[in-house]
Write a structure and sequence with these properties.
alpha+beta, Deoxyribonuclease I, Chain A, 7-stranded mixed beta sheet
Length: 405
Protein backbone atom coordinates (compact mmCIF):
# COMPACT_ATOMS: atom_id res chain seq x y z
CA UNK A 1 0.00 0.00 0.00
CA UNK A 2 1.38 3.45 -0.90
CA UNK A 3 2.21 5.98 1.83
CA UNK A 4 -0.63 8.24 0.67
CA UNK A 5 -3.11 5.36 0.94
CA UNK A 6 -1.83 4.48 4.42
CA UNK A 7 -2.17 8.14 5.45
CA UNK A 8 -5.72 8.29 4.08
CA UNK A 9 -6.66 5.06 5.89
CA UNK A 10 -5.26 6.41 9.17
CA UNK A 11 -7.23 9.62 8.71
CA UNK A 12 -10.44 7.64 8.19
CA UNK A 13 -9.83 5.59 11.34
CA UNK A 14 -9.11 8.74 13.35
CA UNK A 15 -12.25 10.40 12.06
CA UNK A 16 -14.35 7.36 13.00
CA UNK A 17 -12.89 7.45 16.53
CA UNK A 18 -13.76 11.15 16.83
CA UNK A 19 -17.30 10.55 15.63
CA UNK A 20 -17.69 7.69 18.13
CA UNK A 21 -16.39 9.92 20.92
CA UNK A 22 -18.76 12.71 19.90
CA UNK A 23 -21.69 10.34 20.50
CA UNK A 24 -20.66 9.81 24.12
CA UNK A 25 -22.29 11.79 26.92
CA UNK A 26 -21.03 15.41 26.55
CA UNK A 27 -18.98 16.77 29.45
CA UNK A 28 -20.94 19.97 29.99
CA UNK A 29 -19.71 22.43 32.62
CA UNK A 30 -21.98 22.63 35.68
CA UNK A 31 -22.39 26.40 35.20
CA UNK A 32 -24.12 25.86 31.82
CA UNK A 33 -27.67 27.21 31.55
CA UNK A 34 -30.86 25.20 31.23
CA UNK A 35 -30.62 25.33 27.45
CA UNK A 36 -27.19 23.73 27.64
CA UNK A 37 -28.42 20.91 29.88
CA UNK A 38 -31.38 20.26 27.59
CA UNK A 39 -29.17 20.16 24.51
CA UNK A 40 -26.81 17.78 26.31
CA UNK A 41 -29.67 15.36 26.87
CA UNK A 42 -30.86 15.62 23.28
CA UNK A 43 -27.45 14.91 21.77
CA UNK A 44 -27.33 11.56 23.57
CA UNK A 45 -30.26 10.28 21.53
CA UNK A 46 -29.87 12.01 18.15
CA UNK A 47 -27.09 12.00 15.57
CA UNK A 48 -28.47 15.01 13.66
CA UNK A 49 -28.16 18.69 14.63
CA UNK A 50 -31.04 19.88 16.78
CA UNK A 51 -32.05 23.52 17.26
CA UNK A 52 -32.31 24.58 20.87
CA UNK A 53 -35.87 25.19 22.01
CA UNK A 54 -36.38 28.75 23.27
CA UNK A 55 -38.58 27.81 26.23
CA UNK A 56 -35.73 27.99 28.75
CA UNK A 57 -34.14 31.12 27.29
CA UNK A 58 -33.92 34.43 29.12
CA UNK A 59 -34.30 37.22 26.58
CA UNK A 60 -31.61 39.87 26.52
CA UNK A 61 -32.84 42.66 28.84
CA UNK A 62 -31.09 45.39 26.83
CA UNK A 63 -33.19 44.66 23.74
CA UNK A 64 -36.16 42.54 24.76
CA UNK A 65 -38.85 42.69 27.39
CA UNK A 66 -41.80 40.48 28.20
CA UNK A 67 -45.26 41.85 27.47
CA UNK A 68 -48.30 39.62 27.88
CA UNK A 69 -46.11 36.55 27.51
CA UNK A 70 -44.60 37.59 24.18
CA UNK A 71 -41.09 38.90 23.49
CA UNK A 72 -41.20 42.54 22.41
CA UNK A 73 -38.16 44.29 20.93
CA UNK A 74 -37.56 47.77 19.51
CA UNK A 75 -39.30 47.60 16.10
CA UNK A 76 -37.56 50.62 14.56
CA UNK A 77 -34.09 49.82 13.13
CA UNK A 78 -33.09 53.49 13.26
CA UNK A 79 -33.99 53.68 16.94
CA UNK A 80 -32.21 50.41 17.70
CA UNK A 81 -29.09 51.62 15.88
CA UNK A 82 -29.20 54.84 17.92
CA UNK A 83 -29.53 52.69 21.07
CA UNK A 84 -26.42 50.70 20.10
CA UNK A 85 -24.43 53.82 19.30
CA UNK A 86 -25.42 55.36 22.63
CA UNK A 87 -24.28 52.24 24.50
CA UNK A 88 -20.95 52.45 22.61
CA UNK A 89 -20.40 56.20 22.93
CA UNK A 90 -17.09 55.76 24.80
CA UNK A 91 -15.51 53.43 22.20
CA UNK A 92 -12.96 54.40 19.52
CA UNK A 93 -14.30 55.24 16.04
CA UNK A 94 -15.87 52.29 14.22
CA UNK A 95 -14.16 50.92 11.11
CA UNK A 96 -15.08 53.15 8.18
CA UNK A 97 -15.79 51.13 5.04
CA UNK A 98 -17.35 52.19 1.75
CA UNK A 99 -19.01 50.27 -1.07
CA UNK A 100 -17.19 49.83 -4.36
CA UNK A 101 -19.85 49.92 -7.12
CA UNK A 102 -19.39 47.63 -10.10
CA UNK A 103 -22.66 47.76 -12.10
CA UNK A 104 -22.34 46.80 -15.77
CA UNK A 105 -25.96 47.28 -16.83
CA UNK A 106 -27.08 43.68 -17.44
CA UNK A 107 -29.12 43.19 -14.28
CA UNK A 108 -32.86 42.73 -14.03
CA UNK A 109 -34.99 45.75 -13.02
CA UNK A 110 -35.44 46.26 -9.30
CA UNK A 111 -33.30 47.07 -6.28
CA UNK A 112 -30.21 44.94 -5.54
CA UNK A 113 -30.17 42.14 -2.98
CA UNK A 114 -27.76 42.92 -0.15
CA UNK A 115 -26.02 39.90 1.42
CA UNK A 116 -23.86 39.81 4.56
CA UNK A 117 -21.45 37.00 5.47
CA UNK A 118 -19.93 37.15 8.96
CA UNK A 119 -18.31 34.93 11.57
CA UNK A 120 -19.36 36.98 14.59
CA UNK A 121 -17.16 35.04 17.11
CA UNK A 122 -19.01 32.92 19.65
CA UNK A 123 -19.10 34.61 23.02
CA UNK A 124 -17.98 31.50 24.88
CA UNK A 125 -14.99 31.11 22.54
CA UNK A 126 -14.00 34.78 22.62
CA UNK A 127 -13.92 34.87 26.41
CA UNK A 128 -13.02 31.27 27.09
CA UNK A 129 -10.91 29.48 24.47
CA UNK A 130 -9.61 31.68 21.65
CA UNK A 131 -6.97 33.57 23.71
CA UNK A 132 -6.78 36.94 21.94
CA UNK A 133 -3.73 38.07 23.85
CA UNK A 134 -3.78 41.70 22.66
CA UNK A 135 -7.50 42.25 23.17
CA UNK A 136 -8.57 43.67 26.58
CA UNK A 137 -11.05 41.47 28.44
CA UNK A 138 -13.48 44.36 28.67
CA UNK A 139 -13.66 44.52 24.87
CA UNK A 140 -14.69 40.84 24.84
CA UNK A 141 -17.61 41.28 27.24
CA UNK A 142 -21.03 40.38 25.86
CA UNK A 143 -22.50 43.63 27.18
CA UNK A 144 -20.26 45.47 24.70
CA UNK A 145 -19.97 42.99 21.84
CA UNK A 146 -23.71 42.50 21.34
CA UNK A 147 -24.13 46.22 20.62
CA UNK A 148 -21.20 46.18 18.19
CA UNK A 149 -22.56 43.13 16.34
CA UNK A 150 -26.06 44.57 16.00
CA UNK A 151 -24.61 47.95 14.99
CA UNK A 152 -22.71 46.28 12.14
CA UNK A 153 -25.86 44.53 10.89
CA UNK A 154 -28.07 47.59 11.28
CA UNK A 155 -25.57 49.88 9.55
CA UNK A 156 -25.71 47.88 6.30
CA UNK A 157 -29.29 46.51 6.62
CA UNK A 158 -28.74 43.39 4.45
CA UNK A 159 -31.69 41.49 3.02
CA UNK A 160 -29.87 38.21 3.76
CA UNK A 161 -27.60 37.72 6.79
CA UNK A 162 -25.39 34.63 7.06
CA UNK A 163 -23.68 34.20 10.43
CA UNK A 164 -21.33 31.65 11.97
CA UNK A 165 -20.37 31.02 15.62
CA UNK A 166 -23.79 32.13 16.82
CA UNK A 167 -24.30 31.16 20.47
CA UNK A 168 -26.83 33.88 21.40
CA UNK A 169 -29.43 33.04 18.78
CA UNK A 170 -32.53 32.54 20.93
CA UNK A 171 -31.96 35.23 23.56
CA UNK A 172 -30.69 38.02 21.28
CA UNK A 173 -30.43 37.68 17.50
CA UNK A 174 -33.63 35.80 16.71
CA UNK A 175 -35.99 38.02 18.76
CA UNK A 176 -34.30 41.31 17.88
CA UNK A 177 -34.06 40.67 14.14
CA UNK A 178 -37.53 39.09 14.06
CA UNK A 179 -38.91 42.36 15.41
CA UNK A 180 -37.42 44.07 12.35
CA UNK A 181 -39.02 41.67 9.90
CA UNK A 182 -36.35 38.97 9.56
CA UNK A 183 -37.23 35.29 9.49
CA UNK A 184 -34.42 32.88 10.38
CA UNK A 185 -33.10 29.33 10.65
CA UNK A 186 -30.46 28.09 13.09
CA UNK A 187 -28.39 24.90 13.10
CA UNK A 188 -26.07 24.22 16.08
CA UNK A 189 -22.96 22.10 15.81
CA UNK A 190 -23.56 18.56 17.12
CA UNK A 191 -20.66 18.99 19.52
CA UNK A 192 -19.81 22.65 20.00
CA UNK A 193 -16.57 23.67 21.77
CA UNK A 194 -18.66 26.34 23.51
CA UNK A 195 -20.10 23.58 25.72
CA UNK A 196 -16.65 23.14 27.30
CA UNK A 197 -16.71 26.72 28.62
CA UNK A 198 -18.10 27.40 32.08
CA UNK A 199 -21.23 29.53 32.00
CA UNK A 200 -21.77 28.99 28.28
CA UNK A 201 -24.96 29.91 26.46
CA UNK A 202 -25.31 26.60 24.64
CA UNK A 203 -23.71 25.41 21.41
CA UNK A 204 -22.67 27.73 18.61
CA UNK A 205 -23.85 27.19 15.07
CA UNK A 206 -24.82 28.73 11.74
CA UNK A 207 -27.77 31.10 11.37
CA UNK A 208 -29.46 32.43 8.24
CA UNK A 209 -31.75 35.49 8.40
CA UNK A 210 -33.77 36.97 5.53
CA UNK A 211 -35.97 40.05 5.18
CA UNK A 212 -39.56 38.84 4.92
CA UNK A 213 -40.52 42.02 3.10
CA UNK A 214 -38.17 41.08 0.27
CA UNK A 215 -38.34 37.27 0.30
CA UNK A 216 -40.67 34.42 1.07
CA UNK A 217 -39.38 31.03 2.18
CA UNK A 218 -39.88 28.15 -0.26
CA UNK A 219 -37.74 25.47 1.34
CA UNK A 220 -35.34 25.09 4.27
CA UNK A 221 -32.85 22.42 5.33
CA UNK A 222 -30.26 21.95 8.05
CA UNK A 223 -27.37 19.78 6.91
CA UNK A 224 -24.76 17.93 8.94
CA UNK A 225 -21.75 17.78 6.65
CA UNK A 226 -20.06 14.43 6.05
CA UNK A 227 -16.57 13.32 5.05
CA UNK A 228 -16.19 9.94 3.39
CA UNK A 229 -19.84 9.30 4.40
CA UNK A 230 -18.99 9.83 8.06
CA UNK A 231 -20.96 12.67 9.76
CA UNK A 232 -18.72 15.47 11.05
CA UNK A 233 -19.16 18.30 13.55
CA UNK A 234 -19.72 20.97 10.89
CA UNK A 235 -23.12 22.05 9.58
CA UNK A 236 -24.86 24.18 6.96
CA UNK A 237 -28.22 25.96 6.72
CA UNK A 238 -29.83 26.11 3.27
CA UNK A 239 -32.89 28.23 2.40
CA UNK A 240 -34.58 28.55 -0.97
CA UNK A 241 -36.11 32.04 -1.15
CA UNK A 242 -38.46 33.67 -3.63
CA UNK A 243 -37.77 37.35 -4.29
CA UNK A 244 -41.01 39.34 -3.96
CA UNK A 245 -39.63 42.06 -6.28
CA UNK A 246 -38.67 39.90 -9.26
CA UNK A 247 -40.55 36.66 -8.58
CA UNK A 248 -37.31 34.72 -9.03
CA UNK A 249 -35.88 32.19 -6.62
CA UNK A 250 -32.43 31.97 -5.09
CA UNK A 251 -30.87 29.21 -2.98
CA UNK A 252 -28.81 30.54 -0.05
CA UNK A 253 -26.44 28.46 2.08
CA UNK A 254 -24.37 29.34 5.13
CA UNK A 255 -21.64 27.08 6.50
CA UNK A 256 -18.57 26.95 8.73
CA UNK A 257 -15.94 24.35 7.81
CA UNK A 258 -13.43 22.64 10.08
CA UNK A 259 -10.75 24.94 11.52
CA UNK A 260 -7.01 24.55 12.07
CA UNK A 261 -4.01 23.57 9.99
CA UNK A 262 -3.73 19.87 9.20
CA UNK A 263 -7.43 19.47 8.45
CA UNK A 264 -7.29 20.53 4.82
CA UNK A 265 -8.44 17.09 3.65
CA UNK A 266 -11.51 17.26 5.91
CA UNK A 267 -12.47 20.76 4.70
CA UNK A 268 -12.20 19.51 1.13
CA UNK A 269 -14.48 16.56 1.88
CA UNK A 270 -16.98 18.78 3.71
CA UNK A 271 -17.02 21.25 0.82
CA UNK A 272 -17.64 18.45 -1.67
CA UNK A 273 -20.51 17.18 0.47
CA UNK A 274 -22.09 20.65 0.60
CA UNK A 275 -21.77 21.07 -3.17
CA UNK A 276 -23.44 17.69 -3.67
CA UNK A 277 -26.33 18.67 -1.39
CA UNK A 278 -26.76 22.00 -3.17
CA UNK A 279 -26.71 20.48 -6.64
CA UNK A 280 -29.36 17.95 -5.63
CA UNK A 281 -31.47 20.62 -3.98
CA UNK A 282 -31.50 23.15 -6.81
CA UNK A 283 -32.16 20.39 -9.35
CA UNK A 284 -35.14 19.26 -7.27
CA UNK A 285 -36.43 22.84 -6.97
CA UNK A 286 -36.00 23.55 -10.66
CA UNK A 287 -37.34 20.16 -11.75
CA UNK A 288 -34.12 19.50 -13.63
CA UNK A 289 -33.00 15.94 -14.45
CA UNK A 290 -30.39 14.37 -12.20
CA UNK A 291 -26.87 15.25 -13.23
CA UNK A 292 -27.74 18.56 -14.93
CA UNK A 293 -24.76 20.82 -14.09
CA UNK A 294 -26.53 24.13 -14.80
CA UNK A 295 -29.74 24.44 -12.78
CA UNK A 296 -31.88 27.56 -13.20
CA UNK A 297 -31.98 28.61 -9.54
CA UNK A 298 -28.99 30.84 -8.61
CA UNK A 299 -26.83 29.97 -5.62
CA UNK A 300 -25.38 32.16 -2.88
CA UNK A 301 -22.99 30.28 -0.58
CA UNK A 302 -21.63 32.20 2.39
CA UNK A 303 -19.20 30.86 4.92
CA UNK A 304 -16.11 30.82 7.01
CA UNK A 305 -14.31 28.10 5.07
CA UNK A 306 -11.21 28.23 7.30
CA UNK A 307 -9.33 27.79 4.03
CA UNK A 308 -6.98 30.10 2.16
CA UNK A 309 -7.45 30.41 -1.63
CA UNK A 310 -4.67 27.89 -2.33
CA UNK A 311 -6.53 25.07 -0.55
CA UNK A 312 -8.26 22.21 -2.32
CA UNK A 313 -11.72 23.14 -1.01
CA UNK A 314 -11.41 26.58 -2.62
CA UNK A 315 -10.48 24.93 -5.93
CA UNK A 316 -13.48 22.61 -5.67
CA UNK A 317 -15.85 25.57 -5.38
CA UNK A 318 -14.17 27.64 -8.08
CA UNK A 319 -14.22 24.74 -10.58
CA UNK A 320 -17.61 23.32 -9.63
CA UNK A 321 -20.04 22.57 -12.49
CA UNK A 322 -22.46 24.81 -10.61
CA UNK A 323 -20.64 27.79 -12.15
CA UNK A 324 -19.60 29.57 -8.95
CA UNK A 325 -17.36 32.60 -8.49
CA UNK A 326 -16.17 34.46 -5.39
CA UNK A 327 -17.70 37.93 -5.09
CA UNK A 328 -14.83 39.53 -3.21
CA UNK A 329 -12.44 38.93 -6.08
CA UNK A 330 -14.23 41.93 -7.62
CA UNK A 331 -12.22 44.20 -5.31
CA UNK A 332 -8.97 43.30 -7.07
CA UNK A 333 -7.82 45.13 -10.18
CA UNK A 334 -7.76 41.99 -12.29
CA UNK A 335 -10.90 40.50 -10.75
CA UNK A 336 -8.99 37.28 -10.06
CA UNK A 337 -7.49 37.83 -6.61
CA UNK A 338 -9.07 37.51 -3.17
CA UNK A 339 -8.52 40.21 -0.51
CA UNK A 340 -5.32 40.00 1.52
CA UNK A 341 -7.30 39.25 4.65
CA UNK A 342 -10.77 38.63 6.04
CA UNK A 343 -9.48 37.80 9.53
CA UNK A 344 -6.59 39.33 11.51
CA UNK A 345 -5.84 38.28 15.06
CA UNK A 346 -3.03 37.75 17.56
CA UNK A 347 -3.01 34.59 19.66
CA UNK A 348 -0.30 33.08 21.91
CA UNK A 349 0.97 31.18 18.86
CA UNK A 350 1.49 34.41 16.93
CA UNK A 351 -0.21 36.73 14.47
CA UNK A 352 -2.63 35.38 11.86
CA UNK A 353 -3.64 37.45 8.84
CA UNK A 354 -5.58 35.31 6.34
CA UNK A 355 -8.43 35.15 3.85
CA UNK A 356 -10.84 32.48 5.08
CA UNK A 357 -14.33 33.90 4.40
CA UNK A 358 -16.18 33.94 1.08
CA UNK A 359 -19.43 34.75 -0.69
CA UNK A 360 -19.80 32.40 -3.66
CA UNK A 361 -22.44 33.13 -6.27
CA UNK A 362 -23.78 31.73 -9.57
CA UNK A 363 -21.98 33.92 -12.08
CA UNK A 364 -24.28 33.04 -15.00
CA UNK A 365 -27.45 34.16 -13.24
CA UNK A 366 -26.33 36.73 -10.67
CA UNK A 367 -24.38 39.97 -11.05
CA UNK A 368 -22.28 41.68 -8.37
CA UNK A 369 -23.32 45.33 -8.18
CA UNK A 370 -21.28 46.48 -5.17
CA UNK A 371 -18.76 45.13 -2.66
CA UNK A 372 -17.97 46.57 0.79
CA UNK A 373 -14.26 47.32 0.89
CA UNK A 374 -11.93 45.96 3.55
CA UNK A 375 -10.60 48.27 6.28
CA UNK A 376 -6.93 49.18 6.11
CA UNK A 377 -4.24 47.90 8.45
CA UNK A 378 -4.11 51.36 10.03
CA UNK A 379 -7.86 51.28 10.74
CA UNK A 380 -7.66 47.81 12.27
CA UNK A 381 -4.82 48.92 14.55
CA UNK A 382 -1.68 47.26 15.96
CA UNK A 383 -3.58 44.99 18.38
CA UNK A 384 -5.67 43.62 15.47
CA UNK A 385 -9.10 42.00 16.05
CA UNK A 386 -11.30 41.80 18.03
CA UNK A 387 -11.06 45.22 19.68
CA UNK A 388 -13.09 48.00 21.26
CA UNK A 389 -13.95 49.09 17.70
CA UNK A 390 -14.87 45.70 16.27
CA UNK A 391 -16.47 42.66 17.96
CA UNK A 392 -15.06 39.74 15.97
CA UNK A 393 -11.74 38.42 14.70
CA UNK A 394 -13.42 38.08 11.27
CA UNK A 395 -14.53 41.01 9.12
CA UNK A 396 -18.01 41.07 7.66
CA UNK A 397 -18.37 40.64 3.90
CA UNK A 398 -21.24 42.61 2.32
CA UNK A 399 -22.26 42.52 -1.36
CA UNK A 400 -25.13 43.78 -3.49
CA UNK A 401 -26.39 41.34 -6.14
CA UNK A 402 -28.90 41.54 -9.00
CA UNK A 403 -30.49 38.80 -11.06
CA UNK A 404 -29.17 38.81 -14.61
CA UNK A 405 -31.65 39.12 -17.45
Amino acid sequence: MSSSCVHSAVQRRRLKVRVQRSNLTPQVCPMGGGATRLYSALTQTSSSPLPLPPADTNLDPDFCKEKKGSPVCPPDPVELLRQCEEALRDRPPRLHRTFIHLGDGDGAPGSPIRVMQWNILAQALGEGLDSFVRCPLEALSWSRRKHLILEEILTYRPHIVCLQEVDHYFDTFQPVLASMGYSSSFCPKPWSPCLDVEGNNGPDGCALFFDQGRFELQDSANIRLSAMRIPTNQVAVVNTLRCRTTGRSVCVAVTHLKARSGWEWLRSAQGSDLLRHLQNLVQKQAGAPTGDPEPDIPLLICGDFNAVPTEEVYRRFSTSPLGLDSAYKKLSQDGLTEPQYTTWKIRPTGECCSTLDYIWYSQDTLRVDAVLEMPTEEQIGPNRLPSFSYPSDHLSLVCDFSFKE
